[in-house]
Description:
Chain A: Ca(2+) binds at residue 59. Chain A: This is Spore coat protein JC. The structure holds three protein chains of three kinds. By secondary structure, chain B is of the alpha+beta class. Helix content of chain B is 16%, strand content 11%. Chain B has helices at residues 48-54, 68-72; strands at residues 7-10, 26-29. Chain B is elongated. Chain B starts with 6 loop residues before the first strand and ends with a helix. Chain C has a domain at 9-59. Chain A binds chain B through residues 10, 139-140, 142-143, 146-147, 159-164, 166-167, 169-170, 173-174, 177, 187-189, and chain B through 29, 31-33, 36-41, 52-56, 61-65, 67-70.
Amino acid sequence: MWIYEKKLQYPVKVSQCNPMLAKFLIEQYGGADGELAAALRYLNQRYTLPDKVIGLLTDIGTEEFAHLEMIATMIYKLTKDATPEQLKEAGIGDHYASHDKALFYHDASGVPWSASYIQAKGDPIADLYEDIAAEEKARATYQWIIDMSDDPDINDSLAFLREREIVHAQRFKEAVEMLKEDQGKQKYF
Amino acid sequence: MDSFTVRKHYYPYVSPFDPCRPMQVKQYVTPPNLYINYQPPNLPQFTPREALRAGTLWKAFYDPYVSPYKQRE
Amino acid sequence: MAQKQLPKEFYKSMEELQAVDFVILELTLYLDTHPNDEQAIQQFNHMTQVKQHLMYQVEQYYGPLQQFGNSYSGSPWNWKDAPWPWQI
């Protein structure tokens, strides 16, 4: 089971009312390389991976839900007090027409989340290589959003999330090494 | 763990017919995880508060990102 | 309309807890691929103790942080009280 903790992983701050950023941030909410996709990918693959890496996928998958909540917090704060007029100007009138200010699992262009974004091949190497690629793609997405954002507080949270992708990619690489390893040998490179 | 750089540059071909002002240099990121194969034990750590701010406990993985477009301005 | 105001000290304690929890998380992922690192295990167990203490502190201001028997309830039942993490 999972236990919810009533706390964000990182102290998210949002200082400027800039709903335009919400439009871009939603890419990491319901986009192909977003946090939902990441969480569901790892927590689904783990059932058929070798025992020694299940713990890692469980823990990283769980952390991704904490990231999802951070992204949700940013979007929530950026839009909660914006008028429909402001939302229209920010280019999210189409979102508002269907969802008001409710969050929804779609990407920055409004394409709804799809399970076809993620894979579970049943082959440990194929799955872990996909996971490494997913982390690098998410890192890149954070970079492109940071390139477009001039809100220092949002960028602070995005920098945190981007750095987490680096650490996760590292651990997935180590998981591959663990699976390559000959029985009983522990080796650092 | 040898020393390494986390940004690389290349110089794309510039045509006289390119419509936008050419970017002479393009940059891409090669983060530390590409170079640290299997993390060795006892790497230097940040304090808990610094670690939270950095997004990693280990200094070796810290790779702050500055937008190359903002650097250019 | 009466709504719960969180004192300055809450934000300070919460950030301390976030920092300690972050170290615990980082050590967790590290230990998942380095299960024999005794020093990291010691650090993990130590930080877990520190976390208990900080959780207690934060809960004094904020109410229960977890459910399912990991935090004690106030009376009346205060788990469901706002503000939620994305609101503060």
